[in-house]
């Protein structure tokens, strides 16, 4: 007979798996890093299950504190406990963003910040090279060109683009309607080149893919179904390889490049925040450091006395 505790544990671990997929596809973290988070979060979920926790919605700050104390009693180092806490904090932030829980009980817990490393950004030539890779002589190339154009043209998250509906597209006036984290709606402008590529896909390819499936989603696979996040990730890896780009390119790389290129050309930080859908301007300010880093590298490369 299956125990209730086992069923609850399995349900929570499914959320852990979804989170790990998010780290891989949208954050582009290494396999080693993801495995470390998996180990830490599985220990956390097992601890909650033993305490009779039926869902992550019911977790309190005291539960997390006691988990950390239990790890200390087991002889874990301060660095390992700190890493555990980082994993838990980012996991809970993800759960709130995806609507699985209402409150982030970890928000007041102190821990080192994750993802301190500056994001990978492509320069304009690399973007042009990447976006030109899909061959537009067939349906796959037309669809994939539209996907790359909209990812870079809007800076939207891959999860947001994969969920776009035909009714969200307003190409005649140059914008898309996007539903982001926390089910928040925002309007993102769309340039002429991106609009042209998307219009070609909508007119020439999508009707054949959709057929009689009555699927409202914009980007479809060959079976007429919604494309998965993994498919978007593989698509970008494929074309970055074709373009011989040496950097580690993920869907989030196009989002980072979008924001950085706007900032380099004088766009207002608040406007970039609005387009990216960041709740906190501090998140958007990361790109000011990316820009400063670029300027320092240019100075070092070209100044006669670097």
Which topology of the largest domain does CATH recognise?
A: hpI Integrase, Chain A
Backbone structural class: mainly alpha
The CATH C-level name of the largest domain is: Mainly Alpha
Major sheet size, sense and barrel closure? 3 strands, antiparallel
Summarize the structure.
With 306 residues, this protein is mainly alpha-helical.
Task: Spell out the blueprint of helices and strands.
Layout: H1 4-25, H2 31-50, H3 61-73, H4 78-97, H5 124-131, H6 139-154, H7 158-162, E1 169-170, E2 175-179, E3 185-189, H8 192-204, H9 206-210, H10 229-242, H11 251-264, H12 269-276, H13 281-284, H14 286-302
What does this structure look like?
By secondary structure, this protein is mainly α. It folds into two domains: 94 residues, DNA polymerase, domain 1; 177 residues, Intergrase catalytic core (hpI Integrase, Chain A), CATH 1.10.443. It has 14 helices and three strands. The protein has a three-stranded antiparallel sheet. A hairpin with a 4-residue loop joins strand 1 and strand 2. Helix 3 packs antiparallel against helix 4. It is globular, with a radius of gyration of 22 Å.
Short descriptors:
hpI Integrase, Chain A, disordered N terminus, mainly alpha, DNA polymerase, domain 1, three-stranded antiparallel beta sheet, 2 domains, 306 residues
């Amino acid at each position: 007979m299956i125990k209730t505790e086992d069923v609850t544990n399995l349900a929570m671990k499914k959320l852990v798996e979804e989170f790990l997929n998010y780290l891989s596809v949208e954050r582009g973290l290494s396999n080693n890093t993801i495995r470390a988070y998996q180990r830490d979060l599985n220990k956390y979920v097992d601890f909650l299950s033993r305490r009779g926790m039926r869902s992550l919605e019911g977790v309190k700050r005291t539960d997390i504190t006691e988990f950390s104390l239990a790890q200390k009693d087991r002889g874990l180092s301060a660095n390992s406990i700190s890493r555990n806490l980082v994993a838990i904090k980012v996991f809970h932030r993800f759960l709130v963003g995806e609507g699985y829980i209402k409150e982030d009980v970890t928000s007041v817990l102190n821990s080192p910040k994750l993802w301190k490393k500056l994001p990978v950004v492509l320069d304009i030539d690399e973007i042009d090279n990447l976006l030109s890779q899909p061959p537009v002589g067939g349906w796959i190339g037309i669809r994939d060109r539209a996907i790359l154009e909209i990812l870079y043209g809007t800076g939207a998250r891959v999860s947001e683009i994969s969920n776009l509906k035909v009714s969200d597209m307003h190409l005649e006036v140059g914008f898309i309607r996007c539903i982001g984290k926390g089910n928040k709606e925002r309007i993102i402008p769309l340039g002429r080149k991106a609009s042209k590529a998307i219009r070609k896909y909508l007119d020439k390819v999508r009707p054949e893919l959709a057929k009689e499936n009555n699927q409202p989603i914009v980007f479809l696979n060959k079976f007429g179904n919604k494309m998965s996040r993994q498919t978007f990730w593989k698509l970008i890896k494929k074309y970055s390889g074709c373009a011989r780009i040496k950097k580690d390119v993920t869907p989030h790389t196009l989002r980072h490049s979008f924001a950085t290129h706007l900032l380099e050309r004088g766009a207002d930080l608040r406007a970039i925040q609005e387009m990216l859908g960041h709740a906190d301007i501090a998140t958007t300010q990361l790109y000011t450091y990316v820009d400063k880093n670029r300027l320092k590298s240019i100075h070092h490369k070209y100044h006669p006395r670097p």
